[in-house]
Amino acid sequence: MSLQELVDISRYYGSNPEYVIAGGGNTSFKDGATLFVKGSGTSLGDIGAEGFVRMDRAKLAHIWEKQYPKDADEREAAVLADMMAAKLPGEEYRTKSPQRPSVETLLHDILPFAYVVHTHPALVNGLTCSQDGEGAAKALFGEGCIWIPITNPGYILSLVVKQALDTYLARNGKPADIIFLQNHGVFVGADSVEGIRAIYAKILSVLEKKITRKPDFSGKTRLCRDSETIAQALAACAGQNPKVVLEQNAEFARLTKTVADFSPVSSAFTPDHIVYSGSDPLFITITDGDPLEDQIRDAWKGHLKKTGRPPKIAAVQGRGIFGIGASEKTASLALELFTDTAKVAAYSESFGGPRFMTQDKIDFINNWEVERYRSQVAEKP
Ligand SMILES: [Zn+2]
To answer: Distance, CA 183 to ligand 1 centroid (Å)?
Structure first.
C-alpha cells in the first residue's frame, strides 16, 4: 500500500475516457492518520504525488461534531474553511500542490478503505441517471451496493452518505464498497488497488451485458450543411471572440431530427455535465427558406430570456451539435460533455429511460461557488 500505487491507479482510470472525462473524478489513499486526496481542479490522467493534498483525518472527523449554518452558501463556505484548516502543515507552501482539496474529500475520508476511486463513467451513469436506476442497481448488484438518491454535492452529500454507510454497516456487519450516487456517478472502495480494479471490472461488465442499445457515433465529421453560416451566427450571438466547434455523427443526426428527438438530451444528467456543457442546451428548429442567421438569433434571444444564461451547446436541426466557449478548449469541452450526455441517454434506455437532475438541484450547481471554481480552472490554458 503506498502513495505511488494511488498515483498509478489514478492515472489508469484518469487516462481511460470510459471512466473519466474532462478532469472529472477523484481518488484517495489513507495511511493511518493521513488522507491523501486529489486537489480540486487537478486531472487524474497525468497526476503525480504532488497532485494530492495531505489531510489530517482527526481534523476531518471533527467536522462531523460541528453545527453548520442552515443557509447553503454559508454552510458550504464554513465547511470549506474547516477543510482548508484540516490540511497538514506544509501543504500551503508546496508550490505545485493544489491549494484546495477535492470537494468530495469528506466522502473519501468516511469510506473505511485504504483506496477510494470515484468516477463518472457513462455506462454507470446510464444506470444512475435512469428511471429505474435504484431497482436495477439492487437487482444487478444485490445488497453489496448502496444507492444514494439525488442530493446536492458538498457537505450535505457527505452527510447523507455517512448515514447510509452507518446503517449499512449496522445491518450487514461489513462496510459497503460500491456507492451509486443518483445523477452523479459511483464511489468504489477497497484495501488494495487490485480490489478497486476487480470491483470496477465487475460493475462495467455487469452493466455492459444489460445494455440494449449503444450510441452510434459513426460518420463523425466536423462539417455539416451551412456549417460556416451557423458557426458565424452563433459566434455573433455569443459575442467577445467566442469559439464555436461543430460535430455531426449518426447519434447526433438522430437527436437533431426534431425537437422531440432531442428530448432525451435536453437537460442535465450530472453536475459535471452542467459545469462544462451547461444545464440547458439550445435546440434550434430550422424553417427552410427563412434566413438562418435570423432564426439562430431569435432562438438565442429566446433562450437567454428563458434561462438567463447563454447556451454552451446549440443543437441545430438537421445540421449537428455546436459547442460554444470563450476558447477552443472550453468549446471542445462543452461538446465532449454533450457527447457523454448522448451516451448516458442511450444507455439509460436499458433502465427505463433518462432521468435528468431536478430543477432545484440544477439551480444549486449553477449557483455554486465550488463549481464556478472548477470551470475557472478549466478556462485556464
Ligand atoms: Zn463526482
So the answer is: 10
